[in-house]
Amino acid sequence: MNLIKQTGWANQWWFGAMNLGLALPLFAGLEIQELGKDYLFDEGKSRSGLFHHVEAEDVIGGNTSVRNEGRESLAWKGKPDSNGYGYFQRNRDLGQVINVPAEGGDVTLDAIVLRSSRGDNAVMAGTPGAEMYLQLFEVEISAGEILRINENGTSKDEPASHGFDHQFNRADDFIEGPDYRPIHRVAGGIFPQSPTTDRYVYDRGKREQFGEQLGHLRYFRFDLTEEDEITLKAGRRYAFMVGFEEPGRARGLALAISTAVNIKEAAEFVRDENGEMRWGVRREGNGGIVPRMIPSESPPIYSMDRARLEDESLFPSRHWNIIRPTSNGYPDVDTYRTLQFYVEVK
């Protein structure tokens, strides 16, 4: 049974066509708007806990990105480092868990505003003109489970096994217990023409990853068309996720974040303004957590070995209906990461 709600007026036809095995077109229920470097956020359009503002100078992170490369353009991780090597960089969707406040009633989701990062690949060259989608989940606790952070065997003051920075024990922590139930997916959003950032900035001869570029720190509104706006229930936990509909060369969008991973402290949930737990989510490649690795500076020549490695990094067909979100990934995790986001409601 397909649990994803497709866009708009075509729902009934879509389910009938699916049952008959017909090819399925996409119906635009999403518009993506370029807002530039200034976004005048109106708190009256949101609720406490449904946005996370970060000042430009406090944006952490560079190239943790939504990405969907084709087989022919996958990047090989061939440089030995503490996160292992000898695998292809994996395609990825990114998202955020949010909590609708118990007070104030249900909300109608109108749009979600996100911001590009300060990295050299914040807006890659193949992103403008690419089709994206927005997917929503209701987040519940799995039967017999509790929400908890698995410290992955590395507690306070111990180095992490992988992740953003190994000196911090939190870098490999992941969340156990949530069940992400898909409730809505809107597609057809075309990423607008926007300055790209597929280069490093050189300042006085030094390679400076966080130099200012036109494509850095720009706001983008993922706007649900009226027939695809959805009601979120008061007091419930949800997640949203964005991704590219199809693979393409240099197709990636890195998002502005803040994180509490870079401290040598025991595991503790990030909480929103109302004291509710929230965390970032992702899904990568074929859904496996740790990729297979061949310790080599270049990918294998033998076609079968190479194809297996590529398949681990590529999304399967209709991956958004197969792979569930997680906070766990490789080499990074999203347990302590919070996107800069603004949920606009009616």
Textual characterization of the structure:
The protein has helices spanning 11-20, 303-313, and strands at residues 30-36, 51-52, 65-67, 76-77, 87-88, 92-99, 107-115, 131-141, 148-150, 174-176, 178-190, 201-203, 206-208, 219-224, 230-232, 237-244, 252-254, 257-259, 270-271, 277-278, 280-284, 337-339, 341-345. The chain has 346 residues and is mainly beta. The chain has one domain. The strands form eight sheets. Strands 1, 2, 7, 14, 15 and 23 form a six-stranded antiparallel sheet that branches. A hairpin with a 2-residue loop joins strand 12 and strand 13. The chain is globular and about 60 Å long.
Contiguous helical run count: 2
Strand content: 25-35%
Average pLDDT: 88
The computed structural class is mainly beta
What is the rounded Rg? Answer: 20 Å
Number of strands: 23
Largest sheet: 6 strands, antiparallel
Per-chain topology:
Blueprint: H1 11-20, E1 30-36, E2 51-52, E3 65-67, E4 76-77, E5 87-88, E6 92-99, E7 107-115, E8 131-141, E9 148-150, E10 174-176, E11 178-190, E12 201-203, E13 206-208, E14 219-224, E15 230-232, E16 237-244, E17 252-254, E18 257-259, E19 270-271, E20 277-278, E21 280-284, H2 303-313, E22 337-339, E23 341-345
Antiparallel strand pairs: 1-14, 2-23, 3-17, 4-5, 6-16, 6-21, 7-14, 7-15, 7-23, 8-11, 8-16, 9-10, 12-13, 18-22, 19-20
